[in-house]
Amino acid sequence: MDQLEYACVLFDERNPESEKFTNNFLLGEWGWKLCQDAYKTEMSLMTGLPETEFGIEKGLTVCAVSKDKRCLGFINLYISADNAPGTLCIGHAYVRPEVREKGVYKRMVERTEKFAKDIGAKRIISFIHWGNKISVRTHRHLGFKEMMVGYVKEVEE
Fold first, then answer.
1. Rounded CA gap, 65 and 73, in Å?
2. Smallest Cα–Cα separation from 46: which of 134, 149, 147?
3. Would you list the DSSP string of 45-100?
4. Contact, 40 vs 51, CB < 8 A?
5. Residue 60, Cβ density class (10 Å: 0-12 exposed, 13-18 middle, ≥19 buried)
6. How much is the pTM?
7. How far apart are CA 88 and CA 124, in angstroms?
8. Of the candidates 21, 26, 5, 83, the residue with the CA atom closest to the CA atom of residue 56
9. What is the C-alpha separation between 50 and 152, in angstroms, rounded?
10. What DSSP element (H or E) covers 11?
11. Is the confidence at residue 121, as pLDDT, over 60?
């Protein structure tokens, strides 16, 4: 991929009329499913958690899609109605290693910001595993501010 030409598109995978979501991607190595699987594997290796911890629900997704239908990355979005009205949440995000450091995530965040404005959201929250130092640095660079600390306690059986 010498010249990286792509668009950031908002899909709703739950809606079959949403531009026939999976028809917008190649099958195989650069497909939507393999991009999700690569994310789960990478996160599992980075965090030591099982891949099942990184399940991606069907829903609103910003995808970076190349002109030749390669899935370059994605951001899954959740609209918070009960706990934080006016908030758009980034649940999972991934950029394929082959196209990192080329502005793909920045453009997907810009597309997410446009959608946030369209729906009247006042803020975007992104949850990041503490071990994902690259993502922490990237989010700070893109103007996200650290506001929360999360804790987990395992329940013994």
1. 8
2. 134
3. HHHS--GGGG---SSEEEEEEETT--EEEEEEEEEE-SSSTTEEEEEEEEE-GGGT
4. yes
5. buried
6. 0.85
7. 5
8. 21
9. 15
10. strand 6-12
11. yes
